Every structure is written in structure tokens, then in C-alpha cells.
Amino acid sequence: MNSTPKRGKTKPSQTCSDVEEEFSRRFLSLFTSLYDTPSADAVQSFPPVARSNSQAPSETKSKLASNPPPFNATVWDLRLKKTVDNQILLNEEASELVSQNLDSIEEMLAENNEKVQDVFQADKAERADVPKYLQNFQNQLKIDRERKRGPPAPLNIPEAERQFNQRLQKQKQREIERKKRMKERQAQQAKEHMDFLKSLPKTRKSENKMPTAQSENKARHERALELLKKRREGVSSTKSRTKSNKESAVATPKTPKVAADPMYYDNGSD
């Protein structure tokens, strides 16, 4: 049988100089005593704080009265009031938000008057604007009209040729007019360019070295005529020379060829 724990004899109370150290030590002893037989001696025999002989109770009271309080009451009152006011404002805003949500829910419920039975009913079938039998009747009419339509007219070849020739003549006329307009535009641009060149200030060097296009064309034409005349004269002279050579060759007999020796010509002269 388990025996009941015996209490130890109470020791006379002793004073302690360090309360925190004593408290910690006794707390640890109580904490570790949970694994053994529990005991409350550490709590019951806690010693009082030791007092110094020089310090009297009256002196301690006067010292506590002379020390300033750890906080200013008016400042803490203001801070407390401000905190309370802020909390009241936050509570009012939260209550307003909740009331607004409740109002919106009430409005939604008031507007939504659908019955629960209507929610579970099947959707209604879609109906066309024109009934199906009328659509079939209209389609049948279109098919009948297409069947009754006669064959297309045969192609008229002479008429097609006539239209093609007319279009071809118009195209040629447009081409002629286009070329005419292009030539006129080129002539106009050349004239404007010449007028611009004439409007520029001229010097002696520019007058001598920059002849007009008309004078250049004229000089080029004269040189070509001169070259052609010289060529014709050269051809006629060569023809007459060959003719005279042929006549002289026929009149004089052929002589044997002799080497070009200077002694031969000297003997003949003697």
C-alpha cells in the first residue's frame, strides 16, 4: 500500500536579501518536485525580505512620497481618450459597412421574386419568326421558278465582234491622245527649262562655252554633212584611180620582174 507523504518540520522563518534568486530557486524545486512526491514546503516557508538596520520604516515612506510618479496622468488620459475615440470611429464605420451590406442583400431579395419552382423548370423552346412550313413553301417556290426558267440566249458572234472592235478603236484613240499629251508635256518642260536658263545671269565665258541646244544640233548636223561629203569624194577618187590603173595595165605589156639592184640600173644607163 502507498504510504501518505509525511510533512517535514517547519523551520523558523529566515530573511533573504535577494527575493528574485530565492523565488527562482524555490520555483525550480517545485517544478522538479512534480516528478517526486509533491510538497508545498517551498511556498509555505518563503522568507521575508531582509531590512537594513539603518533604514527605518518612516524613512522609506518619506522616500517613496518624494519620488515622482512613473507617468504623467494628464498625458496618459489624453492618449487613452484618443485611443477610445479612434476605436469608436472604427466601430461606427464597421457598423455602417455591415448595414450597407444588409441593405443591399434586402434589395436583392426584394427584386428577385422568382419562385423556387420556376428555377427547376426546363427552358422554353426557341421559336423562329417564320414558321417552318412557310419556310419550306418559300423554298419550293424558288425551286419551281428556277425549273421554269428558259435556257439562256445564244451568243451573238457578230455583235460581240462589233463591240470588241469599238473597244479596240477607243483604246487606240486613248493611246494616241496619251502620247500626244506626253509630247506636249515634254515640250512644255523643255521650254520652261530654256526660259529658266535664259533668265540666269550670263557671262562671257558662259556665252562662249555654253551654246544653246539648237546651235549644238545645227553644228552636229553640219559636221555630219561634211563627213558624208568627204566620204563620197573618197569613194569616187578610189573608183577613178582603180579604173585608170586597169586601163594602163591593159595598154602596157607585162615586163619580167628584176631584183632591185643598183648595179643593174647603172649598166642600163650606160
If you had to describe this structure to a student in words, what would you say it looks like?
The protein has 270 residues and is mostly helical. Among the domains are: 19-66, no CATH class; 73-111; 159-203. Helix content is 68%, strand content 0%. It is built from ten helices and no strands. The protein has helices at residues 19-32, 41-44, 57-66, 73-111, 116-119, 132-148, 157-199, 204-209, 213-251, 262-269. The radius of gyration is 71 Å and the shape is elongated. The protein starts with 18 loop residues before the first helix and ends with a helix. The model is unreliable at 256-270 (pLDDT under 50).
List the secondary-structure elements in sequence, H or E.
Answer: HHHHHHHHHH
- Unreliable residue runs: 256-270
Shape type: elongated
**Fraction of residues in helices?**
55-70%
Please, how many helices? 10
- Overall pLDDT score: 74
Cα separation of the termini: 193 Å
Strand residue percentage: under 5%
Radius of gyration: 71 Å
Q: Which secondary-structure class do the elements indicate? A: mainly alpha
Number of strands: 0
Largest sheet: none
